[in-house]
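How a chain folds remains the central question behind the approach discussed here. The record that follows shows the chain in one-letter code together with its fold in token form:
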Amino acid sequence: MSAETERSHDACPRCGEHRLAVLDVPDVELTGYQPANASMGIATDVRLEGPPGIGCLACGAQWQDLDAFRAEQAGGAS
């Protein structure tokens, strides 16, 4: 990977580094549709507790969601 592909578009509002990453990536079942699983109540779909968070790999700062990140970028509280 080049240095350009390792940089995030936006900078961290706390440290200024371009090292942002998505946290809590959805858990996706890749086995495909299985009718027997559905009849037994076994989940085979995307599972996500809430919207993915955002974190800075450089300083460790985290935001609950994109709205919280944008608010801090605009000068609001985290």
